[in-house]
């Protein structure tokens, strides 16, 4: 079966997360995006695990679905996408903050389990270590290696994936508090880690510059804090529709079953380049090295970004992919495309209206961006067809993000006349 999975999200119990991220809200927006499987997020939180038990029921092995009667109306008016077709996979993120080799480490790890009983056993162990109530993503003084050991003991079919592996402050390879290898982080249990989450600020091509990462599959997820952000990054599978087939496909890392990842253009990630947001300073790695990591405006330290840190560990000049490696599709979220064409903010009413019209015509966001034929798109809207053509071929304009500031990816050059390309799905 062909399906799309976004395996890293957060519930309303995580800080800075929308109250709209209910299970029904997530399912509704997943259907609009064209996502078939969504990570539940935050199964470590007592209130959220109760919601998962009350509102979901078993479906395919390791997958859950909304109970009958729990399915809310679609996320968009006049759009037929059905939330009932969406599945959930039990997931959580744990922030491990601990001291190792004289240095404070701050590593975020994703946990996946096939059933509620496994989740509850893991939760019982973690609750004895620290506070799992104050945040959906608990902060624990727990070594990453020991977290993995707990998962293996309490959920033998569980999977641990280091999250957004290059983020400066909270990741396995982060410039501020990370390690230089998976083996250094997880020690004698490192062989149980077979996948890494690239994060919004890096993509597979960047990671394949590092030979020590060759054995790992690379997955991509949205890490969304509101349901509208689902699918910023995601994974495409051509395998059995169940928990065990999904993770076996990731483990095998073959395009035959793990077909592709959907990526941000990495420059859009908010930690791609080096910089200091307060002074609006954004630098390439060679520029920040020349500045000795100091902001040239205020003299304080720069936040060293993903590109810089990754190049420190790189031992290749060109990426090397394995045979039949998953394909990579770099995309711009549809609301951003619509906002650029209309020349308004992404949260404007005009964008919402045109977005609804496009989804009603093509069925889902990913159906438009990945699958629809260009002549069909251009017949609906020539300017939208031109935008999708440029995105699919990578002909975009990139302004990198830095120090917590998202980058900007544009399809059209400043002042480029769009009027001759026609209206965007009507007037």
How would you explain this protein's 3D organization?
Keywords: ATP-binding, Helicase, Hydrolase, Nucleotide-binding. One of its GO terms (molecular function) is helicase activity. InterPro entries: Pol/histidinol_Pase-like. With 427 residues, the protein is of the alpha/beta class. The chain has two domains: 2-266, Alpha-Beta Barrel (TIM Barrel), CATH 3.20.20; 335-427, no CATH class. 29% of the residues lie in helices and 18% in strands. The chain has 14 helices and 18 strands. It has helices spanning 23-33, 46-55, 116-127, 144-154, 182-186, 204-207, 243-252, 285-290, 306-313, 334-342, 349-362, 365-371, 374-380, 382-392, and strands at 2-6, 37-39, 56-58, 64-66, 87-89, 91-100, 103-112, 139-140, 159-162, 195-197, 217-219, 234-238, 258-264, 274-276, 281-283, 327-331, 397-399, 408-410. It has a six-stranded mixed β-sheet. Strands 8-6-7-9 form a four-stranded mixed β-sheet. α10 (334-342) crosses α11 (349-362). The radius of gyration is 21 Å and the shape is globular. The chain starts with a strand and ends in a 17-residue tail after the last strand. The model has no long low-confidence stretch (mean pLDDT 95).
């Amino acid at each position: 079966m062909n399906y799309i999975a976004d395996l890293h999200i957060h519930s309303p119990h995580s800080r800075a997360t929308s109250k709209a991220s209910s299970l029904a809200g997530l399912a509704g927006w997943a259907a609009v995006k064209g996502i078939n499987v969504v990570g539940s997020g935050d199964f470590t939180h007592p209130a959220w695990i109760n919601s998962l038990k009350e509102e979901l029921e078993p479906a395919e092995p390791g997958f859950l679905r909304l109970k009958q009667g729990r399915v809310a109306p679609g996320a968009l008016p006049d759009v037929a996408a059905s939330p009932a077709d969406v599945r959930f996979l039990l997931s959580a993120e744990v922030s491990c903050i601990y001291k190792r080799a004289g240095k404070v480490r701050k590593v975020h790890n994703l946990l996946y389990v096939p059933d509620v009983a496994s989740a509850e056993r893991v939760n019982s162990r973690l609750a004895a270590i620290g506070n799992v109530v104050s945040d959906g993503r608990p902060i624990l003084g727990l070594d990453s290696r020991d977290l993995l050991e707990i998962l293996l003991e309490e959920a033998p079919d569980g999977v641990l994936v280091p999250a957004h592996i290059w983020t400066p402050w909270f990741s396995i390879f982060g410039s501020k508090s990370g390690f230089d290898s998976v083996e250094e982080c997880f020690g004698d249990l490192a062989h149980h880690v077979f996948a890494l989450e690239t994060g919004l600020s890096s993509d597979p091509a960047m990671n394949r510059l590092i030979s020590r990462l060759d054995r790992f599959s690379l997955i991509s997820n949205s890490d969304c804090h509101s349901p509208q952000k689902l699918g910023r990054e995601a994974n495409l599978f051509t395998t059995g529709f169940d928990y065990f087939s999904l993770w076996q496909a990731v483990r095998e890392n073959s395009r035959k079953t793990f077909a592709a990842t959907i990526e941000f253009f990495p420059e859009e990630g908010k930690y791609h380049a080096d910089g200091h947001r307060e002074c609006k300073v954004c630098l390439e790695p060679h520029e920040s090295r020349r500045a000795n990591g100091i902001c040239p405006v205020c003299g304080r330290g720069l936040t060293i970004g993903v590109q810089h840190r990754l190049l420190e560990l790189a031992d290749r000049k060109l990426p090397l992919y394995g045979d039949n490696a998953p394909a990579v599709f770099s995309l711009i979220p549809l609301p951003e495309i619509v906002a650029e064409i209309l020349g308004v903010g992404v949260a404007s009413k005009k964008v919402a209206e045109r977005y609804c019209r496009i989804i009603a015509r093509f069925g889902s966001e990913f159906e438009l961006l990945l699958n629809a034929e260009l002549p069909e798109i251009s017949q609906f809207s020539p300017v939208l067809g031109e935008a999708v053509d440029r995105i699919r071929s990578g002909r975009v304009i990139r302004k990198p993000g830095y120090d917590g500031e998202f980058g900007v990816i544009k399809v059209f050059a400043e002042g480029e006349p769009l009027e001759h390309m026609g209206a965007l799905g009507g007037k």
